[in-house]
Design goal:
By secondary structure, the chain is α+β, with helices and mostly antiparallel strands. 31% of the residues lie in helices and 13% in strands. The chain contains 21 helices and 22 strands. A hairpin with a 3-residue loop joins strand 11 and strand 12 (589-596).
């Protein structure tokens, strides 16, 4: 019997050693002990470090090193730090209880519960940051903020945060909650070089701490998060929105009732009458704008920016800024007000070749007002016509500067615009030169609102849904446009249709790094070069003789547009203007000028309109550009020169009493073959009729004129081959005198007269030679009150309205009510 093979036996597996419960207990116990010991040691180190910092810096305030701003030539123009000049300390007993509540509710809800560091808030912030995958919520307590503001500089490092925490814990050990809160409220920054709640109450509300109302308290409590953005003077709308957030937090935490919350939310901030800006630096408006831009570009807080020791290099052209400041300080450049509320203004200059802002003025006496009007929206009036009507029409390729536009008085639904020019057809160029309203409305209607608004949107105007109607053709907008927006849009025209990025900062240099260096964004062709050139070509006529902006002319090529808006005061039927503009550009620089009152009412409306804005443009730009080499507007390829016949010249209309007719004559057209069309309108009629058509001679007699009537005539040349007609000639009014009929005298019949007729006395045709009335003759405005909404508030929408003596500008309010404009050489110019 065969022997069975032996089977291999598998090795026995090693038994896992089981950890007994006793070992688990001791392991966890010693781990916990070590963690606790480490925690205690760490906490003691934090306290010891905080104690050390407090000891070394007792009675010492460290705000860091002042940041410095330089002009384009790297010459220092301002230092951002020196806050002690605007601080007044308040005792705890002086601080209203609701202000304490507002600060705690907004900045540190668990302030009375933690010991300097709020671990619950830290955990909550970490969770939210992880969910959002970015830092969306901070967790600094009031005590930590105090530690940072009083004892630390603005560097953002781990060690700084650790030191901040250690100082916060030490402060909580040394001081009471009341002391910490009092110190915090005395140190905190409130913008405009104001530190501490006591100074903030005086600066922003001209009141003592104890007299602050709830809405004022909430406004102050809203500012520490972002003093520049939530500043009620510089950004009233943002401030009001943030105030609502503070009030909601106070309500949620039981500090105020719902009724108190709603009442405080509704109050609209007004700058105190005796408010004085605390700023002695030169160029305050430009510096404020630089700080605002730097905060946006670096994501640093304004406080960190001011005390971080940064060097900020800007585009400021001090020659241009000095000229601008001098002209804005000259009262003769502005209308006289009947009281202390003076006419205000704003201006900005951009080098559209690179987007560098050369100079800006936020208003007269900006140092005392603090409101940068370069960023305040106002109704642009006729200055908006190239943006909403003529620009998109040219861009469509269907219209050209010589295209004849209808100027009929007609209604578009319920909107019936009118102007003083009557129903004369007019070229696009002439329409811009005269600032005709009917042609602009007709043009926008032809191209469609969608095209007009899309073009405006590319130029940076995000218009409201309520703006989507034909009143936009006259600049009647819900919120309006800022001088910055208008200057930027016109910069695109000047730059051959290419986008322009306005900026004031070239670079920011820090001790350890450079947080920002300007890099121009990729250029976009926002419109064709041909469209930009045609607009430039047309708007050059605005500053030529007979245009609405002749006072803006300077000693170099210039294009531009005037704009005026009606007062829009409910119940007031008198004449007057709310906003006056001139926006223009040379081949090198673009500038926008706005003038008007901050608050328009019956006692505060303009009379002279855009003429003074145009004059301000000229006075500033002539001197500011003294050292800028002159150049010319570039003419792109593809420009069509197929222009219509030139306007008829030497047009004459004379009444011949002996023949009882009006004799019309004019010079022949010299270039090309044309026929002539004569138009006539009786004074009581609204529209012209074509009196004579297809006329080849250079004169015609009107034998159908009736005595006692007044007629108005004009003539155009018509090119049948190209279906083009010239702009209308000069219009001439002729009055036919009444005819005196002598009583019939009975006479003996003449026997030799086969008819036995009667002798009829001669007709006395004795009239006088008519005085020609030029097409730009002076007519004073009679605006119709406007009851629409405007400026983004409850005020009426002020739209493009005329000024007596403002430059031939027709204006219409948002409801279609129209007033006629005056001549640029009229009174008040």
């Amino acid at each position: 019997m065969a022997e069975r093979p032996r089977s291999k036996t598998a090795p026995k597996p090693k038994k896992k050693k089981k950890i007994s419960g006793r070992k688990w207990f001791y392991g966890l116990f010693f781990t916990a002990v070590i963690a606790i010991v480490c925690g205690i040691i760490g906490y003691l180190l934090i306290i010891l470090n905080g104690e050390r910092v407090l000891t070394e810096n007792a009675n010492k305030l460290v705000f860091g090193e002042a940041s410095i701003i330089y002009d384009v030539n790297e010459v220092e123009i301002a230092r951002l730090s020196d806050p002690d000049e605007n601080r007044e300390l308040a005792e705890f007993s002086e601080i209203p209880e609701q202000l304490l509540n507002a600060i705690v509710a907004t900045e540190d809800q668990r302030f009375y519960e933690h010991s300097g560091i709020d671990f619950f808030a830290i955990g909550r912030a970490v969770v939210k940051d992880v969910i959002a995958r970015s830092a969306v919520e901070g967790a600094s307590t009031i005590t930590q903020q105090l530690a940072k503001n009083v004892f630390l500089t603005a560097d953002k490092t781990f060690f700084r945060k650790a030191t901040e925490a250690s100082i916060a814990v030490a402060l909580e050990q040394k001081m009471s909650k009341q002391q910490i809160l009092t110190m915090y409220l005395n140190r905190i920054f409130f913008g405009k070089r104001v530190h501490g709640v006591k100074e903030a109450a005086k600066f922003y509300f001209d009141t003592d701490l104890k007299d602050l109302e709830l809405w004022q308290i909430a406004t102050i409590a809203a500012m520490p998060k972002a003093p520049n953005r939530y500043n009620p003077i510089a950004h009233p709308e943002d401030s009001m929105n943030r105030r609502a957030v503070v009030l909601k937090l106070m309500f949620d935490q039981g500090y105020i009732t719902a009724e108190e919350m709603e009442q405080a939310k509704a109050v609209v901030y007004e700058i105190p009458e005796n408010h004085a800006e605390r700023n002695t630096d030169k160029y305050p408006a430009f510096v404020d704008y630089v700080v605002e831009e730097a905060v946006e570009k670096t994501n640093l807080s304004e406080e960190e920016l001011r005390i971080g020791g940064f060097k900020i290099y800007t585009t400021l052209n001090t020659q241009a800024q000095d000229v601008m400041d001098n002209q804005f300080s000259n009262d003769d450049n502005f209308e006289k007000s009947k009281d202390d509320q003076q006419v205000q203004g704003a201006m900005i200059i951009i080098d559209h070749r690179n987007g560098e802002i050369q100079a800006l003025s936020g208003g007269r006496d900006y140092v005392k007002k603090g409101l940068n009007r370069v960023e305040v929206a106002r109704q642009p009036g006729s200055a908006f016509k190239p943006i909403i009507s003529y620009g998109p029409a040219l861009e469509s390729g269907k219209y050209y500067p010589w295209t004849v536009l209808a100027n009929d008085k007609k209604c578009y639904g319920n909107y019936c615009p009118t102007d003083r020019w009557g129903a004369t057809a007019v070229s696009m160029t002439q329409a811009i030169k005269d600032s005709r309203n009917l042609a602009s409305v007709w043009m926008l209607n032809q191209i469609g609102l969608k095209s007009g608004f899309a073009f405006a949107d590319k130029l940076g105007f995000s218009l409201e849904d309520d703006d989507r109607n034909l009143t936009a053709a006259l600049g009647g907008l819900t919120k309006g446009a800022t001088p910055m927006q208008m200057a930027t849009a016109y910069s695109v025209f000047a730059n051959g249709g290419k986008s322009v990025d306005p900026h004031t900062i070239l670079k920011i240099v820090g001790k350890d790094n450079n947080p920002y260096t300007y890099k121009a964004p990729a250029t976009k062709q926002l419109m064709s070069a041909q469209t930009a050139y045609y607009l430039t070509e047309m708007m050059q006529t605005v500053v030529e003789k007979g245009g609405t902006g002749t006072k803006a002319a300077i000693d170099r090529p210039l294009a531009g547009k005037t704009g005026t808006t009606q007062h829009g005061i409910p119940g007031y039927s008198g004449s007057g203007i709310r906003d006056a503009w001139f926006v223009g550009y040379s081949p090198e620089w673009t500038a926008a000028v706005w003038m008007g009152y901050d608050k328009t009412n019956v006692d505060h409306i303009l009379k002279t309109g855009s003429s003074q804005a145009a004059a301000m443009f000229s006075k500033v730009m002539k001197s500011a550009m003294k050292n800028v080499p002159k150049s010319s507007f570039n003419k792109p390829q593809g420009i069509k020169e197929d222009k219509p016949p030139a306007a008829i010249t030497n047009f004459s209309a004379v009444f011949i009493p002996e023949e009882m007719k009006v004799k019309l004559s004019w010079d022949p057209y010299q270039d090309g073959k044309v026929t002539y069309q004569v138009f006539r309108k009786e004074a009581s009629e609204s529209d012209y009729i074509r009196f004579v058509d297809s006329l080849v001679s250079t004169g015609v007699d009107d034998m159908s004129a009736f005595p006692g009537m007044t007629y108005e005539y004009y003539v155009v040349a018509y090119d049948a081959e190209n279906d083009q007609e010239s702009a209308p000639s000069q219009k001439i009014k002729v009055t036919i005198p009444e005819t005196e009929i002598n009583p019939e005298i009975p006479m003996e019949p003449d026997p030799h007269d086969p008819d036995g007729g009667e002798i009829t006395p001669p007709v006395d045709g004795g009239g006088e030679e008519p005085t020609p009335t030029p097409s730009d003759g002076i007519e004073l405005p009679t605006p119709t009150p406007n009851s629409g909404a405007g400026n983004g508030s409850t005020d009426p929408i002020p739209t493009d309205a005329p000024a007596m003596g403002t430059g031939n500008e027709d204006t219409t309010n948002a409801l279609g009510n129209t007033a006629t404009g005056g001549n640029s050489q009229g009174t008040g110019g």
